[in-house]
Amino acid sequence: MRLLAILWCLLASAFCFSNDRDRVGPDGAPLRGKELWKTVSGMSPEDVDEVARIIAENREKVGDRLRQENARIHEQNSFAINQAKEYVEELKKSMRHLPGGDPPSITEINMRSGLDEVLVEGDIVMTPDEARHYFGVDRDGRRSKRQAYQMEGMFPRTLWSDGVPYAFDSRLNNKTQDLVHAVVKFWQENTCISFKEMKTKQEMKSSPVKPVLVFFPGVGCYSKVGRDPTGSNATMQGFRNVAHEIGHALGFIHEHTRWDRDKYIYVEFNKTDDEQDAASEYYKAEEKENNNYGKQYDFGGVMHYKDTDGVKVPGEKVMFANNPDYQMTIGNTMGPMYGDVYEMNMLYSCYVIGSGSVRIDQINATDPHRCTWHITAPEGMVIEYRVTFVGALNLTGDKYNKHCREQCYTGGVKIKGLEKTWIPEGMRFCCSPQFNKIMATSSNLLVVEAYNFVYYTDFAVEYRIKPVNPTTPTPRVSGCPASYDIPSSSGTECYNVNIAPKSYSDAFSSCLATGGTIWMSQGVDERMLNDVFITKAGKLGIPSYWRGIKDGKCGIYDFRRNSYTYTECDDKSQLARKAGYICHIKRETPVITATTQQPVPLHFYGDYILGLTPLSFAGAKARCEELNAHLISLHKSGVAAEIQHVYNLRQPGSSTFWIGLHKDLGLSSPYTWVDGSRFDYKNWSPGYPGKTVAEKCGAYSEGKWIALRCDKPLLYVCEK
What we know:
Structural class: alpha+beta
Low-confidence stretches: 1-21, 139-154, 229-239, 471-476, 589-596
Keywords: Disulfide bond, EGF-like domain, Hydrolase, Metal-binding, Metalloprotease, Protease, Signal, Zinc
CATH class of the largest domain: Alpha Beta
Mean pLDDT: 78
Helix content: 10-25%
Domain CUB: 322-466
Distance between the termini: 19 Å
Largest sheet: 11 strands, mixed
CATH superfamily of the largest domain: Collagenase (Catalytic Domain)
Organism: Steinernema glaseri
Number of helices: 14
Signal peptide: 1-16
Number of strands: 29
Strand content: 15-25%
Oligomer: single chain
């Protein structure tokens, strides 16, 4: 899977190529839409006209149906959808744009030439029969249940079961051919699909597998879905994202048109440039024809469009993640991800991949060899975590927000562990509104991966290990009435956490009915109660509860966004906002409460992990080993000074930290590095190491090494 990093870099610079001059009609005006398509598609003019007619006639019907469905979805989930939109506005305040503007999407490129008139979902080529089938004009209920759109009775002949012959048009430049070769190499090494390049017309003609997939420069980005065994496969041109279009050619549909997409995203058609076109572009597949092989929805997969595709006003969004924390993950920026590899292998029934030496079940979704850190808890425990920083500390200017761009395009951090499955792409972090949100893993493993296309990526993550199902003691807490089972830290109050959303008025009355009052504090115990609420409600999709009062208005605290919204407390209308709530009551007798493990704050800098909590040498060594790392070993000048600079940026005043230098018992025993590397560089401060048995552990301080007692608590640096 090491090829992934190479492919990402290539895809970052991919774009669509056009011919040197526009194709023009008899009047000298540039051709557009179906008239342009007649000159480049290889289809007969009659078939082009028929496809355009089918799309035009059915687009409005599809649009009406989807708008009605969307209205029902919005009515049922208006509060959550509005919260997602508010969160997007917060993200936009801190977001930067790429110099020269964001690169155009595939659909934007095609719409500039009017090709949306003859393409389905923005970039899919269809024959008249396929278009009728797609829109249900001739539907008879006998479709194959596959991950891609398939003509009835044709599967599996629509797969490239005998390999993929491909060729290049002579006009296609070498740079783009190299890009195609990289994508082909990736799929060939990570699936059982074989590719063979046809380098001459004679090879194309004599190829035992037909048709031959041809790549050529043109006026847009498009492809057929799967292999068409009845005729010439549509060629593909324009390469902003070659991997996406080759994904179509191999049999993939768009991720955002999955039958179950409404569970994960909300599509707002009135934000699009043309509502009818948008309805066609976001037309959902039916469950009976869409098999995703058990893969959960993949926001960042290669087949997912950006959340801005087709937008009417620049800066607006068309797609909103139902879990707002996934908003920055919508849309692929890096090429094929693990979920794409998994699904392609399932589609082609690949049980061994590449040369046949690796089984599909041996592919690692959490590969530790790519700028990745694994944090593992004991069995039966989970990891609670929060990202506190992503940026580029050593850069001038907006160093704390350098990577905050659409889709975290230039760099950021991806985290897996929140979901029960490892298959989909991890959640991306790069903007300050995403920071300091407490989340918990579904298992005992947390995977943190840094990436970047420009600059570099610094980040900091705090975590702590907790039981899978933290519960309060089973005996009734002395002095607290029934259901008030959480004692305050002071021992003077009892709390009752309720996750069922209610208006403030109803929540207030509910607390009164049990003898208590609603808790609205923003001070004592808020962290503890927030943790309890997250544990109870987080995985049920309930993100907020009543807390705080400002200017006479009652606050709703959203723990996913770490933000407040304020509304009228006495609103009793049907449109009144609802949230979970916490009741409290005076406690009659004190009890002793259990302590909770404190978070472990860390800062990630290149191959180094900077511990921000002082530990003994043994504690620091053990913490590094938990992170599959070791205390840093130094073999040249400048490295420790650079780390010291980062420490001072993150935690001003930090001057001394443990390094992986220690000696065994005895005055004469030598100092060695804990990782066993050679002791080939020295930087001792004058007078060190001293002649004492007690000072056996090495630290870096004020530009030099010193020896200290090993039980002294210091900051520390781990090295991958």
